Amino acid sequence: MEIHLPDVPVMEIFSYLDAFSLLQAAQVNKSWNLAATSDSLWRKLCKKRWLCYDLSLDTLGAQTWKEYFLRKTRQEHSMSRAKPEDFIYKEMSGDFGMAYYLSGSGLTYNGQGKSIVCVVTSMTRLTTWDIREVSLGAMTWVSPIQPTCIMRLATLPELRLAITVDMEATIKVWNCYDKDALATNSMFASCQILKAVLTKDGPIVLAGDDSGNLHTFRIPDLHLISRVHAIEFAINQLHCSPQRKWVYLNKKHPHVWPKVYLMKSLLRPSEYPTPVCTTINYTLSFKAFWTPRREDRITLLSQRGPRQVSKFVTFDIELERTEDGIDAKGKPYHLRNFSIASFTLPSDVKAPEWMGVSDKDVIVCSSGTSLLVYNMKGFQLQRLQDYPAEIMRLLVDPLHVIVTYIDGSLEVYMWEESSPYLKKCYHLQNPRHMGMLPKTLCDNVSIIRVVTKGPNCCFLMAYVLKVCS
């Protein structure tokens, strides 16, 4: 005999389930199926996983939030399931500079769609390229020549927007199909780092300048929301937490301590005349990585002394309301941080240049030709040495780790779902040896990078998955 619970408690219980559990619950009976396919439940899961704030289903190209979740999940795993022969290698020579994805998903539900890359060309132009076209030379848009060189580039793939800052500290927003910029403003100081993000208060761009100021602009009109003097030196590290609750700022310097700001206090200056922040008492941190799909945990990597002794320290950030609602400085909150784990790498391990963290609180770093995996306490889980060349860069995200070697080849790993270990997927050879190896980027169906071989010799390179459903 079936037991029917009232709709309200069923929905409340289902709101705590993950996607797999919801799919299982939908098989029990018609009543549970109706509840488990509710758009409100799947919308909550999508927002938690991909930050789809204020984005409509029409914008995302789906009929329901369940459809979007399942399609997006399949897309995310498409690169992990691939084989080297499933990729098409493409390259094009030109005067390329910085490059970032302008499209966020790659394949659509039916296997079609576009993978758009935004590139600074000849230092004074912004161009976009559809790298899934038969020829990589499929340029889809070009901006007018800018008065001065473009020094910084950021993109907001969710809204198909690009943001640039030039040598004169002029910041612009582009929709990458109109001739002119949507909006223009000035920072009045040289921009050192630029980051565009989607928040609960809407899309914004964060910019750190060489005087230690953090500028927060609204997108797309570039209204200056706030400007905060954060540190005494140029800001060259800026990382937002996964759900955009915190902003981490730093510069590797013996007299600079990193700071973490409450994002909401930067976006609502009328409510927070003094931004809420905490100082992490830890200097010479040159890498930082928020734990994916967790809001309050960040891991720092420091190197000290002539032997470059490397140490990982993991901090939790905590926001506390004061007992009487306000403290002596007029602030309604206390923000504090505390170390929960740390360890020093053995002296026989070469100092790592790159690192990342998985959502299982596992740290991965490169050391010479090896990929090392540790838990937060410093216990080594894996030492992977699948290719004899030196590791030059790492790309770490919640699903993959992509290793770039000195010869330009790539190794793709994925995080195992039920364990804290990495599993090798495949190796992609570089068709020819290149020069300076830059940042490697990927979406769901391609891997790209701009490689510089000489002063006037650059290549936009891409490994593109063949059309699949």
From TrEMBL:
Superkingdom, taxonomy of origin: Eukaryota
Pathway: Protein modification; protein ubiquitination
GO cellular component, one term: cytoplasm
Species the sequence originates in: Peromyscus maniculatus bairdii (Prairie deer mouse)
Keywords on record: Ubl conjugation pathway
Ranges where the F-box domain occurs: 1-45
InterPro entries: F-box-like_dom_sf, F-box_dom, F-box_SCF_Substrate_Recog, WD40/YVTN_repeat-like_dom_sf
Protein name listed in UniProt: F-box domain-containing protein
